[in-house]
Fold N-acetyltransferase domain-containing protein.
Amino acid sequence: MLGNQQLCLRPVEAADLPRLWELIYKDEQPEWKKWDAPYYPHKAKTYDDFLLLKDDWIEHLFTTLPLVRVGFTTWSGNERMIRVGEKLGMQLEARIRKVRYYDGTYYDSIRMGLLREEWEQLL
């Protein structure tokens, strides 16, 4: 398990299954599908809490797996997530313009990434 006082990453447990089913299958058009990711009840007080957890997660990935790169994809409307990537030392690797359409507006797809050697320099 990885985490801090506000958030933790842990394996899915049997007790989680009813809520996961609700999030994934209960509604034919759930809100999270508009944003490309499931959203769970928000317990963190700030994005800094999330940032600390992401930092721990990246450290875990680089120390336990033979990865050369860690990254994520988001959309240009999610400015806070882009900022998280920047704070973690990630680089903008790709911007595919006007590829996501939501609520009458086209948004860019954003790809952020961090190489192992970049991560090691940040330590």
